[in-house]
Amino acid sequence: MKKDLISMVDIKEDLPDIINLAIEMKRRQQMGEREIQQVLKNRSLAMIFEKPSTRTRVSFEVAMTQLGGHALYLSPRDMQLGRGETIADTAKVLSRYVDAIVYRAYKHEMMLELAENATVPVINALDDMEHPCQIVADLMTIKEKKGELAGLKLAYVGDGNNVANSLMLGAAIVGMDFYIACPEGYEPDKDLTGMAKKIANESGSKVVITHDPVEAVKDADVVYTDVWVSMGDEEEKEKRMKVFKPYQVNEELVKHAKPNYIFMHCLPAHRGLEVTNEVIDSRNSVVFDEAENRLHAQKAILARIIKH
Ligand code: CP
Ligand code: NVA
Predict the structure, then answer these.
(1) What are phi and psi of 206, to 5 degrees?
(2) For 52-71, what is each residue's pLDDT tens digit?
(3) Choice among 10, 128, 226, 304 that is catalytic
(4) Is 45 in the pocket of ligand 1 (CB under 6 A)?
(5) Are both 145 and 185 inside the same structural domain?
(6) 231 pocket-lining for ligand 1 (C-beta < 6 Å)
(7) Nearest ligand to the C-alpha of residue 292?
């Protein structure tokens, strides 16, 4: 049976192995052992991006090259999808050519429909519900920097969006306490929160939703934020700018974290809004290692999901 990666829950059992494989692949690449990694020789990956992307697109494309395969970037504007061909028919056709499909979608329902109709694995490259590939790279980064995951405290400050949803699930799976400070009405998805709390219960960690950034950040090992206006939320921009103002990650706020805390952001960042230059450019910030790790994490994900 094919294995999709639509939600963090899809890799609940495999997550520690995928993180370790990503760390191992990074080590091998740094040692120059490139040919050993070519486990996807002659394999092809279709990548449909409905929204812009820098990191996800480039890291998947380079990951396929380094694994010995080939990636095709497909914009709906240039596909028959843009002229009304259904996502279901697109899924059936692409499955006859390629070994997996990466999809960045506006709507989670479209992601599910593609996965349901594709006979090859589908990987969620971000939709309005989750961003699982980002979180595999994030957990890999935390493990590299802190040596472990279980028992740490992660504070997410800002919007309960796709990144927050996946991070909450990922933290619960690996046994890390997850605190989110967000304005009222901007909490993470209710169903996913219920699921994360259940998983946290099994792993011995906590999921806490608060409206107080200081409570979330107090003694945190990791402070994480993301944009206040995600792709697709642009018409709410004015309102969001006001509501999220008290949730900026700045020097005053991070004083409450542990002295050796790390600052993370999936990027792209809006400097001066959700995070100040002082914090994102500080010695505690690991945002560019985090961005680099997207490549190593994608390689581990592809090697696990595409049959070889
Ligand atoms: N973090 C992330 O997914 O970035 P891109 O939108 O550039 O892919
Ligand atoms: N939450 C952001 C993440 C971008 C990588 C968005 O969906 O736009």
Answers:
(1) -125, 145
(2) 999 999 999 999 999 999 99
(3) 226
(4) no
(5) yes
(6) no
(7) 1
Name the residue among 268, 289, 271 with its Cα closest to residue 280.
271
Active site residue 131: yes
Residue bearing the CA closest to ligand 2, atom 1? 230
Q: Please provide the distance, in angstroms rounded to a whole number, between the alpha carbons at the two ends of the chain.
A: 14
Place of tokens 């046994």: 175
Please check whether residue 215 lies inside any domain of the structure.
yes
**Residue 36, pLDDT score:** 67
* Selection from 116, 267, 128, 142 nearest residue 192 by Cα: 128
Q: Whose CA is nearest to atom 4 of ligand 1?
A: 55
pLDDT given at position 285: 99
Query: What's the structural domain count of the chain?
Result: 2
DSSP annotation of 76 reads G
8 A C-beta contact, residue 59 and residue 295: yes
Tell me the sheet residues that pair with 48.
74, 103
Tell whether 196 and 299 lie within a shared domain: no
